[in-house]
């Protein structure tokens, strides 16, 4: 591996807290940009002694992220870089949808089991983010409905918790690390590709760049707490150029969620979990390589996941890590 000067930074509104050392590129955490749309991958401060970095309190990541957007919805804001390139962007629509866009050339998706769904032991990625995965953790977000409701299947690295069903919307990650979204045995899996994991959840919410024709059917898109039509909802889609887009919000109809995804260029999407107890997305700040990642909620007012996926959680979820 090529040796280089490692500068592990969190860049917030153009102010970096960095620790410099000689290391291989494999140990560097991704940089998280919690700044405005003008922020660039090179907007880092000069490396300073570790003692100086440790003496300062960690940045207030949620406040800085909120300041990046201001009071109104706006365009894409870069929120993470890897190896000097923007890797993730955040946007918020006027309808209250948060959209997290991910570049798969730099990032990869991983399906985790929970302590309950699909069980705490025996899976490649378990109920919490641990070990080396933490060092390259960029984002994480909720999985699908409880497996017991019969809305979809779960398979990971040759082990199946619930059998996969033809035609259901599926988040498919291949052995090479790339992920696609589509109807099982129709648009996915790709011929000749080795499948690493699959999470299914209902029919596709978006297909061929168009919203599903059943959006007016409330019961078609999951049981809501209290029977409300606009609970917290989330989804994962893929654009025509292969970027993944997670979408979530605290008060959304299925039509609003689908419309925001289509508006962001998504051609296929799967609805993930709904209701406030189970919809949450996070970015993770890396404080100059010191201490655990700092979770940053990406959906304003989200109920949140206890431990923010850094502690064991009962439900399945996805992490996004730098290659």
Topology:
Elements: E1 3-12, E2 15-24, E3 31-33, H1 50-54, H2 61-69, E4 74-82, E5 85-92, E6 98-102, E7 107-112, H3 132-135, E8 137-142, E9 154-156, E10 159-162, E11 169-174, E12 179-183, E13 195-200, E14 206-207, E15 210-211, E16 233-239, E17 244-249, H4 254-263, E18 266-274, E19 281-285, E20 294-297, E21 317-322
Parallel strand pairs: 1-3
Antiparallel strand pairs: 1-2, 3-4, 4-5, 5-6, 6-17, 7-21, 8-19, 8-21, 9-10, 9-13, 11-12, 11-13, 14-15, 16-17, 16-18, 19-20
- Compute the CA-based radius of gyration: 19 Å
Which structural class do the helices and strands define? mainly beta
Strand order of the largest sheet: 2-1-3-4-5-6-17-16-18
Mean pLDDT: 84
Number of helices: 4
Residues in β-strands, percent: 35-45%
Describe the structure.
This protein has 4 helices and 21 strands. The chain has helices at 50-54, 61-69, 132-135, 254-263; strands at 3-12, 15-24, 31-33, 74-82, 85-92, 98-102, 107-112, 137-142, 154-156, 159-162, 169-174, 179-183, 195-200, 206-207, 210-211, 233-239, 244-249, 266-274, 281-285, 294-297, 317-322.
Short summary of the structure?
The chain is mostly beta strands. It has helices at about 50-55, 60-70, 130-135, 255-265; strands at about 5-10, 15-25, 30-35, 75-80, 85-90, 100, 105-110, 135-140, 155, 160, 170-175, 180-185, 195-200, 205, 210, 235-240, 245-250, 265-275, 280-285, 295, 315-320.
